[in-house]
């Protein structure tokens, strides 16, 4: 079974391959371009030299051309081939092979071996061959100089390839070290979270618009913060649920024991009725906890377009008879009719119903409850107002907590979860829930952007 390379090794290897490939392509291009430029320069030089000598021949005939060839070459110069050949390919004058190995034909430019013997048999040259009367004019240069330049360039390019390979290895190692370090920091935080420590966060190299690792760290930190908050809320809910269920369960057990011992059927029936009350209270608490959890897990794809005014009027019509039976004046005030909004209709209806229930229960002494819809600076406002005793400003934060019950409400049945559900629904819709003073009474306000 072969062992797979680690991600760091693969990153380093990929960096080396990319660096080497890019440098080889660059080296090949430079080598080819340099060779082509050298041959093009040789071509221009030979053509210009041949044109000049042909002009001399046209003005002074063969003697003048022979003299020009003699003076055109420095003594001992073997890099310039200038010669006159007869119709059989034998050299008449100048520096060249004694007999041409190339065909006698008008040749603008060509690279070939000019002779068959001596140094000429192993030397390629770039040349031109033109007729001059019954003879031929040869102008050329061996490619020795170009080949020497190419060898020097090839050596330099080979050194450049080696250096690029070394740089590629170094760059790959540095890049692999950087990536590994960033990944290890993320893995360390994830391992700590897996062991139960949700307080650690991934450090950022650059805040704001950093690299991909920074963006990953920001999202991971946000996720860990959310998980930490949910875990804290879960602990609060668990502790509070256990604490608040203890009393009704104890009462339920006591009343059950008493009901078992009662012999009188009428008294036993009354005792069983008390059991039902305690059971209903426990069921309401559990149901409310489930509703809060469900509201926090709902996604926005469950939202539908709902007209706020229609929703308020529909809920108001349901509660108007309830308020009338309780001897309260119930008002529905729709101050604006905004366009339909994306709303989770069921949860929003539940939240508004909880607001009205609280107003009817705790604000009944004021004699009036108002359900109001209006447009505020930050969005649409669903508001329930009563004329009861209200809640002091110092106690409002406690009232919004899960299982948060004020001392004045301890004597009435309830679990202290209604406000928490409303706040969860507000967060689900990107809004907020707040309590205010109605002077007298309480204003419960649900603001949706």
From TrEMBL:
<feature type="domain" description="Histidine kinase">
    <location>
        <begin position="240"/>
        <end position="449"/>
    </location>
</feature>
<dbReference type="Pfam" id="PF02518">
    <property type="entry name" value="HATPase_c"/>
</dbReference>
<keyword id="KW-0418">Kinase</keyword>
<dbReference type="InterPro" id="IPR036097">
    <property type="entry name" value="HisK_dim/P_sf"/>
</dbReference>
<dbReference type="InterPro" id="IPR003594">
    <property type="entry name" value="HATPase_dom"/>
</dbReference>
<feature type="domain" description="HAMP">
    <location>
        <begin position="177"/>
        <end position="232"/>
    </location>
</feature>
<keyword id="KW-0808">Transferase</keyword>
<keyword id="KW-1133">Transmembrane helix</keyword>
<feature type="transmembrane region" description="Helical">
    <location>
        <begin position="156"/>
        <end position="176"/>
    </location>
</feature>
<dbReference type="GO" id="GO:0005886">
    <property type="term" value="C:plasma membrane"/>
</dbReference>
<feature type="transmembrane region" description="Helical">
    <location>
        <begin position="12"/>
        <end position="31"/>
    </location>
</feature>
<dbReference type="InterPro" id="IPR003660">
    <property type="entry name" value="HAMP_dom"/>
</dbReference>
<keyword id="KW-0902">Two-component regulatory system</keyword>
<dbReference type="InterPro" id="IPR050428">
    <property type="entry name" value="TCS_sensor_his_kinase"/>
</dbReference>
<keyword id="KW-0597">Phosphoprotein</keyword>
<dbReference type="InterPro" id="IPR004358">
    <property type="entry name" value="Sig_transdc_His_kin-like_C"/>
</dbReference>
<dbReference type="InterPro" id="IPR005467">
    <property type="entry name" value="His_kinase_dom"/>
</dbReference>
<keyword id="KW-0812">Transmembrane</keyword>
<keyword id="KW-0472">Membrane</keyword>
<dbReference type="GO" id="GO:0000155">
    <property type="term" value="F:phosphorelay sensor kinase activity"/>
</dbReference>
<dbReference type="InterPro" id="IPR036890">
    <property type="entry name" value="HATPase_C_sf"/>
</dbReference>
<protein>
    <recommendedName>
        <fullName>histidine kinase</fullName>
        <ecNumber>2.7.13.3</ecNumber>
    </recommendedName>
</protein>
């Amino acid at each position: 079974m072969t062992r797979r390379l680690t991600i760091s090794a693969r990153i380093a290897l990929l960096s080396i391959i990319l660096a080497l490939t890019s440098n080889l392509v660059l080296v090949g291009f430079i080598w080819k371009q340099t060779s082509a430029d050298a041959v093009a320069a040789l071509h221009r030089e030979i053509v210009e030299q041949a044109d000049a000598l042909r002009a001399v021949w046209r003005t002074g005939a063969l003697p003048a051309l022979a003299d020009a060839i003699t003076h055109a070459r420095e003594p001992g110069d073997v890099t310039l081939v200038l010669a006159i050949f007869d119709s059989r390919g034998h050299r008449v004058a100048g520096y060249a092979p004694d007999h041409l190995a190339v065909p006698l034909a008008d040749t603008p430019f060509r690279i070939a071996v000019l002779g068959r013997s001596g140094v000429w048999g192993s030397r390629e040259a770039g040349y031109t061959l033109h007729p001059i009367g019954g003879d031929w004019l040869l102008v050329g240069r061996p490619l020795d100089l170009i080949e020497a330049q190419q060898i020097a360039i090839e050596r330099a390019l080979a050194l450049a390839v080696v250096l690029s390979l070394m740089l590629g290895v170094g760059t790959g190692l540095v890049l692999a070290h950087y990536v590994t370090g960033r990944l290890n920091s993320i893995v360390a935080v994830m391992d700590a979270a897996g062991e139960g420590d949700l307080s650690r966060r991934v450090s950022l190299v650059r805040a704001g618009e950093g690299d991909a690792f920074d963006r990953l760290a920001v999202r991971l930190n946000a996720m860990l913060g959310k998980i930490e908050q949910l875990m804290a809320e879960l602990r609060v809910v668990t502790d509070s649920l256990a604490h608040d269920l203890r009393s009704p369960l104890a009462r339920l057990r006591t009343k059950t024991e008493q009901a078992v011992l009662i012999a009188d059927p009428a008294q036993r029936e009354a005792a069983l009725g008390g059991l039902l009350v305690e059971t209903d209270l426990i069921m309401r608490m559990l149901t409310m906890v489930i509703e809060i959890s469900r509201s926090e897990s709902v996604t926005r794809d469950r939202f539908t377009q709902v007209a706020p005014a229609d929703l308020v009027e529909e809920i108001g019509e349901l509660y108007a008879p309830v308020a009338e039976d309780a001897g309260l004046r119930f008002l529905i005030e729709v101050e604006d009719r905004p366009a339909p909004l994306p709303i989770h209709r069921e949860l929003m209806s539940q939240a508004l119903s909880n607001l009205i229930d609280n107003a009817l229960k705790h604000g009944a002494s004021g004699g009036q409850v108002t359900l109001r819809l209006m447009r505020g600076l930050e969005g649409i406002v669903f508001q329930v107002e009563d004329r009861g005793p209200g809640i002091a400003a110092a106690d409002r934060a406690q009232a919004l907590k899960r299982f948060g019950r004020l001392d004045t409400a301890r004597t009435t049945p309830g679990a202290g979860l209604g406000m928490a559900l409303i706040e969860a629904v507000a967060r689900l819709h990107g809004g907020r829930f707040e309590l205010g003073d109605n002077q007298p009474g309480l204003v419960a306000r649900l603001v949706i952007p």
